[in-house]
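Weekly puzzle thread! Below is a chain. First person to post its structure in token form gets bragging rights.
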Amino acid sequence: MTTILRGPVLAALDALKIIRAESRRESRGWVGTTAMTVGLDGSVTHRVTWTPPETEDGEASEWLRQIGESAIEQNRTGRFELGAAETTDLMRLAHRLPSYLLAARHEPGFSAALLEGEEKLGERSALRLRLHLHGLSTILLVDRESHRILALDWRGRLNDGVTRDIREILEDWRSIDGVLVPMARRIVRDSKIDEAAREEWSRIAFERR
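Winning reply:
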């Protein structure tokens, strides 16, 4: 994998223990904020809050999903165990963070394989690297020249609950605590960019061992 992703890129991830990410997006006037904490031990905490526009009488809603000693959801109606599909969806959120996937490359069950052929993304030529962890596969499309991850391909569910092939185009790369991370992503589903599903991270932070 070091022949595809530069050694310093991977070395900066070696001591990571916890990744924290926060994002904000709007939908029909509602404002959604997300706070996610992902541990290299496989733990995931995902808290979502939706706030209605001032012109509506709706109430703000909040729910939390968590994988730790057990997989649970907590919302205004109570606390419940997550089913297998919901647990997979939650773990997939962690796998959508490239920094997590690469930092977890020494974890049990992790594997990487370079796929045959290249793919064009705009004017860039990308190598395809398949990573497998926790029973989930993700393909990284890596720029042949810059070694930057241009996109992620994976199969799973978004908010509409439909299982399909998804591509995430990663944008607005910044260096945070020595780690290069994308601060925005666009979703391609059914071969079309879903601009409504664009997500921007407002904060990403790392805790090291």
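Puzzle host: Confirmed. Bonus trivia for everyone else. The CA atoms of residues 63 and 75 lie 4 Å apart.
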